Amino acid sequence: MLSTIKDLAANLAPRLTEIRRHLHSHPELSGQEYQTAAYVAGVLSSSGLQVQELVGKTGVVAELRGSGVDSRLLAIRTDMDALPIHERTNLEFASRQLGIMHACGHDVHTTVGLGTAMVLAQLGVPLPGTIRFLFQPAEETAQGASWMIRDGVMQDVTSIFGVHVFPTIPGGSVGIRYGALTAAADDLEIIVVGESGHGARPHEAIDAIWIASQVITTLQQAISRTQNPLRPVVLTVGQIQGGRAPNVIADQVRMLGTVRSLHPETSANLPAWIEQIVASVCETYGAKYTVNYRRGVPSVQNDPSLTQITESAATEAWGSDRVQILLEPSLGAEDFALYLDHAPGTMFRLGVGFDDQPNYPLHHPQFVVNEASILTGVVTMAYAAYKYWL
Ligand code: NI
Q1: pTM of the prediction?
Q2: What are the pLDDT digits (tens) for 361-383?
Q3: Is 250 exposed, middle or buried (0-12, 13-18, 19+ CB in 10 A)?
Q4: Catalytic: 139?
Q5: Quick check: is 316 catalytic?
Q6: What's the 290 CA to ligand 1 centre distance in angstroms?
Q7: 46-61 pLDDT, tens per residue?
Q8: How far is CA 123 from the centre of its chain?
């Protein structure tokens, strides 16, 4: 079966490159993937799949019906949105949308999803069970997965596979991670309210700027002294506003930040932990405060037995020297995690790096993918989907 899948994928390779380049030159922002969705739906229905459009706002769902011998349902999820970045790659198929770019490889993910559907549809024999392909919008804004889930895409799903490109892994290689792949990412807003006064007479005021600086410092120190160092926490205050004039003591400071963690228990305790620190600092100096902690996405926790399936699929297909077992998770976030509240799943990393040219990071205006990775991604995903039923 592996050689059949490899042959089918190799025959489709020129078409898949064409698809990927079309997607790359026509990027759309999160939640506005109308043309992308229509294009994806067209490719899927011409490959003989049952297609549903406008699922999760601008998402597409397609099913490849199995023989029914196995009642399980496997979902394969890819994402379709691009970023508000002005592309500077000089590729002949660079973005034609000013200020919008596929700089996170979602054009490759969509192509891998389509290629997998096309290969499995051409196998000639039905698989034992049904595969549901999810083409998700708005991953970059962490909204798309919840839109899709709200529209019922996880109904009856037993397991889910996903993929994300990675420029530090060479093109043609696959990265496999057991356990935590990405971090939980939450939004934080802290407002410190003091009392205004003359800049020369601090004792008659409550200086919100100085207290806010104590809040930030105390939070950073408390991470190192009160959080388990083996369970990382990153707290970044990325935006701060306060004050009106150089000689007027500020009565209010607003801080916005992101909070990342890997361990579910740590993640669960973070809101109360932050609130307690903010409260103690503010109360010490007489300020009032508000803490708004908004849950973003949880950590992607790869299921061991499903990860084993993708690892062995990749190893059989490409040899162990092209399969990297990743020893470290990323503190980036991925809304694939939300599907995992409904069914176990796993996500592999697809290497898109070059040996002979610079590899820019994801979300960089010069980010370029090694297109050899498309075939690697399609074969790995299709073969893993085949092995799922064994
Ligand atoms: Ni991405």
Answers
A1: 0.91
A2: 999 999 999 999 999 999 999 99
A3: buried
A4: yes
A5: no
A6: 32
A7: 999 999 999 999 999 9
A8: 30
